[in-house]
Amino acid sequence: MAWVGTGSCWPHTHPSLSHLPGSFSQGHQVLVVAECQASGRIVGREWQSGSPLPQVEFYASRAEAYIQLCDFSSAAQNLRKAYSSQPENTDFLERLTLVLYLKGQCLFEQCAFLDALNVFSQASELQPEKFCFRYRCMACLLALKRHRECLSFVTKEVEHGTTNADVYILRARLYNFFQQVDLCHRDLHSALLLDPKHPQAKVLLKVMVDQAQEARQEAGILAVQGKLQRALQCINCAIENNPLDPSPALPQMCCVISGEPLTLPRPHRSLSLGHP
């Protein structure tokens, strides 16, 4: 029995164990057919009896038993011991980070976001070259509503030279959350350069157009009420959110409110999604 999605990557038949005699070999065969509790007892008796079994193989097999039981904490503990005994064995490292990923994902689905963040961070430290762990850290930070930390995390990812449009879209959303509209447009532009048909880019652009429309309507209400300074702020917000809006009402209203001509921002032509 293999853990769902991992069987092809981590076969449970380990050729180096075939020569081991007695109950350890029996325990491994039992493990293969997923009788995990029986396997754990057999392996434990073999170890306690003082038989000359390799520590590394013992920890690796016991970790597999715990994986079958979905006890990822115990599996990770045993894999850490196996990896510390053979740090040159990258298979143990790969297996350990996979188990940490599964553990973190289980915690995330249980809404234990802080614990999940700690686990994903451990996996990322072990294999910093793998972006999947960093992406899960971002998801945890968002779930914890630690938006500023998430923004810092995403910015580091961008500085590392990511070519993933999703990362730019995420940072654009965070910039929009913090009302940093110019930076939001910049990241949308970067995302569209990487993926001109990115669906989430279209969604975010619509959000910004809606924000512009709402701000323009509020500006009209404030202008009628004589609250000209606040109305001007709303108009500026509308222009920032949707600089491509050709409506003549925007510059006209700004002239009326401020008494001075308004120079509109240069249109961000690169944000155009083109014709479907």
UniProtKB/TrEMBL annotation:
Coiled coil: none annotated. Keywords: TPR repeat. Signal peptide: none annotated. Transmembrane segments: none annotated. InterPro entries: TPR-like_helical_dom_sf (IPR011990), TPR_rpt (IPR019734). TPR repeats lie at residues 56-89. The keyword Transmembrane helix does not apply. This is Tetratricopeptide repeat protein 16. It comes from Phocoena sinus.
